[in-house]
Design brief:
Elements (H helix, E strand, L loop, with lengths): L1 E5 L6 E5 L7 H26 L11 E2 L2 E2 L2 H20 L1 H25 L11 H19 L12 H6 L1 H4 L2
Length: 170
């Protein structure tokens, strides 16, 4: 399957393959990033559920230095499994998933920062959770954008080739 991208300068369609070659080094970066972050979130979620903390408890229970409750633990397990699925699939799927979840983690950090010390803080976030959310978001975005977003991509990079189809055709 290929996605058609309209090149802005040439107004012709460029085909960008949905999947990088299996042995492409960029796919390994996307997979490793998704797998590592998925493992961290799974461990956090499982440890939170083992402690048998109430689902919406905001009593200040901690796991690995982060405040948690049952809802946050279940959410962490779901996102961790999603990242593991992205690591198994690899390629553009893992890259796009890393970027998307990275943005969502950063947005979550800002939203939960605004909800600290309010009754709407149902995930029992504290400032360390907000900082963790920012760090994980930036790491996921870096893993997802590696080799895709830069002004100095090598000319054999598949993303550079897709953006500069008129140059590569010459």
């Amino acid at each position: 399957m290929a996605t058609q991208v309209l090149h802005p300068r040439s107004r012709r369609r460029v085909t960008l393959d949905e999947h990088l070659p299996v042995d492409h080094r960029l796919s390994q970066v996307y997979r490793i990033g998704a797998g590592l972050m998925g493992l961290v979130l799974l461990a956090f979620g499982i440890l939170g559920l083992i402690d048998r903390i109430g689902f919406f408890d905001t009593g200040g229970d901690t796991v690995a230095g982060l405040n948690t409750n049952g809802a946050l633990s279940v959410l962490s397990i779901c996102v961790g499994l999603l990242l593991f699925a992205g690591a198994v699939i690899g390629g553009n799927v893992a890259s796009t998933l890393n970027m998307t979840l990275g943005i969502l983690f950063i947005l979550s950090g800002f939203v939960n920062l605004a909800l600290l010390d309010t009754g709407a803080n149902v995930l029992a976030f504290k400032i360390q959770n907000v900082l963790f959310s920012f760090v994980v978001g930036v790491l996921l975005m870096a893993f997802g954008m590696y080799g895709r977003v830069s002004g100095t991509l090598p000319h054999d990079n598949p993303y550079w080739l897709a953006r500069h189809a008129n140059r590569s055709a010459n």
